């Protein structure tokens, strides 16, 4: 057995923590213990943290102070997760319009700015803390252990690259990849040529783990199967998108491995992931309260509902009943694997399509929120493809918009292939009956030559 994983966990990672001021390894130890606590004890921890963050929000966050006041509430009126119904959901619009009022006037951690393309195509800025990031990363690494993957074993990542990484950052992340034993593959750059290169690189590198968005991994698996390439990757983590059964089957067959689907969030330290038993997604209840609610924001336990997420660790900008734009349902059963964290049965609404360029390159739907997150003056957007090599970009403008800045951003597409873009301004983006707006819709099928 390689000595690198223990070395990484006990020396390299603690050094990262020390230099960055995070506590990922300590939190991971903590979470690895609590995942076996009786459910009542987990609920007790969650409740204590909930009460504390609400008190903090009431005392130090102007927005929440007025929300409580308007309803005649004191923090003591919310003693458990059921009581959360007394508070309104936090929407992306509220964050965009009243972001400054959502900041705590006395957070024990410095706020760190983050930006998301938003899963429904609405770019949004927000703040997190090192304390919260530590818990989020720790929960993610803990969930990797459920698949019997140890930090420090080789992993390959099929992921979106950043457009604007500075040179020094690039060098630093290269070093990190070496220490982590990670091989990176850009999932925005998918052509038959790169798919072949990735398959060959995987055969040489022999990772124990492959992780990435579901649809690019599915595409790669289709290529590997069609070309009869022999690969063995025992563990595969799929995330950020709905994973369909046919995709899971294809990925497992192509890589001769086992797929573990996961769900997380940038705005919260939410992590839910499958374990070896594959009976659902274990939810990290030490980090978040997840409610499934109806349109009136009342809690549902027994059928599919919209997710509202309360983060228990972000003291700089508390997210309470945050409407993340996804939906799902709880499992009524505990898991046979022995981990006591509650299970989500299904997660809905993370659907993305491929955009096909003129030269038959495949750009995953995840590309566009990544691109548009830097767009100024864009309230909402949607990409629709009716024919190969062409897209319609629908934009709902807001003050500060300039077409020049969008055209400059769109130039980034050229790296991945040729697309004619028609920009169309609309008053709103239509919400389909599912309630979840897709930001990328393609009617063009993927075909290998
Ligand atoms: Zn389990």
How would you characterize this protein structure?
By secondary structure, this protein is an alpha/beta fold. The chain has 2 domains: 326 residues, 3-Layer(aba) Sandwich (Rossmann fold); 89 residues, GMP Synthetase, Chain A, domain 3, CATH 3.30.300.30. 33% of the residues lie in helices and 23% in strands. The chain contains 12 helices and 19 strands. The strands form 4 sheets. It has an 11-stranded mixed sheet with strand order 4-3-5-6-7-8-9-13-12-11-10, sandwiched between helices. Strands 18-17-16-19 form a 4-stranded mixed sheet, with no helix packed on it. A two-stranded antiparallel ribbon has the order 1-2. A hairpin with a 7-residue loop joins β1 and β2. α2 packs across α6 and α3 packs across α4. It is globular. The model has no long low-confidence stretch (mean pLDDT 89). The protein binds zinc ion. Zinc ion binds next to loops.
Low-pLDDT segments? none
* Second CATH tier, the architecture of the largest domain: 3-Layer(aba) Sandwich
CATH class placement of the largest domain = Alpha Beta
| Main pleated-sheet profile | 11 strands, mixed
Task: Look at the helices and sheets and give the structural class.
Answer: alpha/beta
What is the total number of structural domains? 2
Bound small molecules, deduplicated: zinc ion
Strands of the largest sheet, in order across it?
4-3-5-6-7-8-9-13-12-11-10
Q: How many strands in all?
A: 19
**N-end to C-end Cα span:** 42 Å
**In CATH terms, what is the fold-level topology of the largest domain?**
Rossmann fold
Q: What is the CATH superfamily of the largest domain?
A: ANL, N-terminal domain
Shape: globular
């Amino acid at each position: 057995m390689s000595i690198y994983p223990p070395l990484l966990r006990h020396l390299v990672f603690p050094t990262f923590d020390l230099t960055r001021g995070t506590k990922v390894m300590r939190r991971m130890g903590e979470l690895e213990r609590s995942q076996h606590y009786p459910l009542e004890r987990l609920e007790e921890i969650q409740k204590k943290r909930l009460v504390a963050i609400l008190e903090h929000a009431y005392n130090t966050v102007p927005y929440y102070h007025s929300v409580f006041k308007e309803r005649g509430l004191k923090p003591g009126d919310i003693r458990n997760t059921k009581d959360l119904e007394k508070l309104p959901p936090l929407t992306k619009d509220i964050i965009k319009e009243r972001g400054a009022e959502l900041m705590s006037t006395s957070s024990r951690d410095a706020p760190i700015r983050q930006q998301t393309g938003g899963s429904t195509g609405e770019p949004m800025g927000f703040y997190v803390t090192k304390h919260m990031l530590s818990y989020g990363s720790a929960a993610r690494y803990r969930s990797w252990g459920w698949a019997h993957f140890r930090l420090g074993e080789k992993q390959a990542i099929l992921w979106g690259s950043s457009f604007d990484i500075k040179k020094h950052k690039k060098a630093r992340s290269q070093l990190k990849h070496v220490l982590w034993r990670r091989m990176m593959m850009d999932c925005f750059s998918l052509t038959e040529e790169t798919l072949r290169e990735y398959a060959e690189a995987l055969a040489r590198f022999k990772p124990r783990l492959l992780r990435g968005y579901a649809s690019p991994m599915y595409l790669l698996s289709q290529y590997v199967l069609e070309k009869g390439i022999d690969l063995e990757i025992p563990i595969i983590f799929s995330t950020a998108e709905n994973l369909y059964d046919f995709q899971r089957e294809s990925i497992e067959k192509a890589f001769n491995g086992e797929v573990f689907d996961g769900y997380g969030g940038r705005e919260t330290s939410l992590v839910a992931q499958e374990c070896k038993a594959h009976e659902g997604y274990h939810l990290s209840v030490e980090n978040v309260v997840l409610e499934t609610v109806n349109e009136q924001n009342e809690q549902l336990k027994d059928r599919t509902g919209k997710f509202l997420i309360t983060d228990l660790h972000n003291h700089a900008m508390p997210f309470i009943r945050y409407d993340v734009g996804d939906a799902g349902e709880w499992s009524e059963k505990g898991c046979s694997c022995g981990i006591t964290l509650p299970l989500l049965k299904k997660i809905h609404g993370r659907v993305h399509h491929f955009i096909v360029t003129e030269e038959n390159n495949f750009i995953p739907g995840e590309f566009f929120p990544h691109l548009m997150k830097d767009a100024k003056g864009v309230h909402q957007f949607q990409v629709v493809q009716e024919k190969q090599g062409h897209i319609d970009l629908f934009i709902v403008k807001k003050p500060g918009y300039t077409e020049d800045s969008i055209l400059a951003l769109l130039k980034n597409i050229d790296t991945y292939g040729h697309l004619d873009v028609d920009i169309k301004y609309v008053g709103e983006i239509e919400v389909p009956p599912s309630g979840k707006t897709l930001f990328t819709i393609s009617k063009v099928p993927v075909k290998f030559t």
